[in-house]
Hints:
247 residues; 34% helix; 10 strands; flavoprotein
Amino acid sequence: MRQLHLNLFIYGCGHHAAAWRHPNSPVERLGDAGYFERLAQSAERAKLDAVFFADGQYTGSVEDGPKWFLEPITLLSALARATEKIGLITTVSSTFQTPFNTARMLSSLDHISGGRIAWNVVTSMYDMEARNHGYESMPDHGWRYQRAAEFIEAAQKLWDSWSDRALVLDRAGKYAESAEVNAINHHGEHFLVDGPLTIPRSPQGYPVLFQAGSSEQGRDTAAKYAEAIYAVAYDLSAAQAYYRDVK
C-alpha cells in the first residue's frame, strides 16, 4: 500500500490575503515564536509528517497586510526544541545565499533537531528581492537554475566533507580523525568553496531536499536533485501531467 505524506504549510495568519483582518486572527503574534511552536505541536499530535515554511525577500505593500515576518531558519531552531518527531522544512534561495552558509545553517539545524530538517530550494523571482541582494534586477531564469544546480552540488560536497567516522572524541588529545575530514576544493562557474564544513556530519547527513519550480528547468532540477516537490496544479489532469513529467 502506498503511503501519503501530509505536511502543514504555515503561512502567517493564513493563506488568504485578508486573513489577518479576521477578528480572531493571530496578527499580533507573528513575531512570537510561541505561536508557531503551538502550531507545530498541534501538527505533531495530529501525526503529520512535517511543517513547511516559505520565505521571501521583499515587503510588498505594508498597508495591505503582513507578507513575511520571522526568518524561517531562525524560527525553526525554536520549533526544533519545541517538538520531537515532526519534520521541519525551510526555504532558502540559491540566488541570494551561498553554499557554505546554507550548508552550515542547515547542518546546525539538523543537529539541533536530531535529524528532522528539509531544505526547499528556490531560485526566487522578483526584482524587488534581487535589489535587496546587489542585483539591479532578477538574473536570467536559465542562469538562476544553473547556479541552483551548482549550489546544491557544492552544499552536498560540504555535507560529505566530514565522514561518519570523523569524530574520535578521545579526551587524551584527539577530537577528530583528520583523514576523515577533507577539503572539497569546489571551483565552479558560480562558486569557489574550499571547505571542509566547520560542523561534523549531521544525523541525516543531508537534509531532505524539496524543490519548487514549474518551468522546464525547474522540473529538470527537481527530477535530478529533489526528494519532494512543492507544486501547484489547478485541476487533476494538470497534476497528473506534472507528476508524469518529473517522474
